[in-house]
Amino acid sequence: MPGRDRRELAAIFAGGVVGALMRVALVQTHAGAAPGWPWVTFAENILGTFLLGYFATRLQERLPLSAYRRPLLGTGFCGAFTTFSTMQLEQLTMIDAHRYGLAVAYASSSVIAGYASVHLATLYVRRARTVT
Amino acid sequence: MSVPVWIAVGLLGGIGALGRFLVDGIVAARGGRDFPLGTLVVNVSGSALLGLLVGLGFKGDKLLLAGTATLGSYTTFSTWMLETQRLVEDGELGLAAANVLVSLGVGLGAVALGRWIGAHL
After folding, report:
1. Taking CA atoms, what residue in A is nearest to B114?
2. Is it the case that residue A60 has pLDDT exceeding 90?
3. Which of A20, B47, B85, B97 could be a cystine partner for A88, CB 3.0 to 4.6 Å?
């Protein structure tokens, strides 16, 4: 395997380790804090998505190309800190309990807030670029 | 949570992230570049596997390690949203809407099907 690829894989692994540890730490310390609405997953997904929007835009459009920053911060950390499968399982649990409105509200607010956070992070990075 | 469990969470989280990168790369290389099919395949397959674990009766540390740590890292919300927002920026509103709706619909179906299969194995 070429050296650049191996460094890229190591960066993704390292970011994934930190992202998963932070996500699980938040889950463990806030388990059952607010029954009904999965605040931990929701907050992690929105925060991680804002950070990915920031990193992706900044690394792609502002900083010189780097072999390992995007894999470390984007694919590794933000990818592992946020999660799709847990969100879907939480929705299924809501449907089990016949709380259909809650399931729809959870899915749609996650998408709306996630989309808005990428949008705002992107605008923030681009605005900073035009000022400097 | 004990120290060995924390260490396992970190290592499995790293492995989940690598698995996502590899599967995404394989799918994206075959599926073209217009639609973020790689992330969709990752998220749907990870949701099906998480459902399977729950259906098989995984609980406690087993579910934490195989589900929350590994599959939680393997699947991703942030990349899905970034790719959706970039599709909108490129004027591909139909593809962006399809990316949201197909992921949610097929992902939910996958976790339900996985759980059903696990419960009947």
Report:
1. A89
2. no
3. B47
